[in-house]
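Help needed: design a sequence for this.
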């Protein structure tokens, strides 16, 4: 390749890389608007919060459905807050059950010993 074609090509590649780097890695994963529909709690398996601290301009709750679809909702709506609270209760309830209960005994239960008279 001729040297005078190499320099413009390198500048073009550097400009492209700089533009990609400036956009940031999470820019494509941001909600740009809130859904106006009520999200049924029965289809939601988890959620995460989005905002300026995560590199996104819009404050939102991003629900993940059981089919791995993403739904963006307003954190100010009451039904969204209730869904988040119920998901937190379910999550904490599962952890408490595992930690708080002793393991179940396996096999046949032992007979109590009879006292001799």
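Sure. Designed sequence:
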């Amino acid at each position: 390749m001729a040297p005078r074609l190499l320099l413009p090509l390198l500048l073009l590649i550097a400009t492209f890389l700089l533009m990609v780097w400036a956009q940031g890695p999470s820019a494509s994963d941001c909600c740009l608007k809130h859904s106006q529909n009520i999200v049924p709690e029965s289809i939601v398996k988890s959620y995460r919060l989005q905002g300026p601290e995560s590199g996104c301009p819009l404050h939102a709750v991003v629900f993940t459905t059981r089919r791995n679809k993403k739904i963006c909702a307003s954190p100010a709506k009451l039904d969204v807050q209730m869904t988040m609270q119920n998901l937190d209760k379910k999550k904490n309830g599962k952890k408490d059950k595992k930690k708080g209960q002793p393991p179940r005994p396996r096999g046949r239960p032992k007979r109590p010993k009879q006292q001799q008279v």
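The chain has a mean pLDDT of 82.
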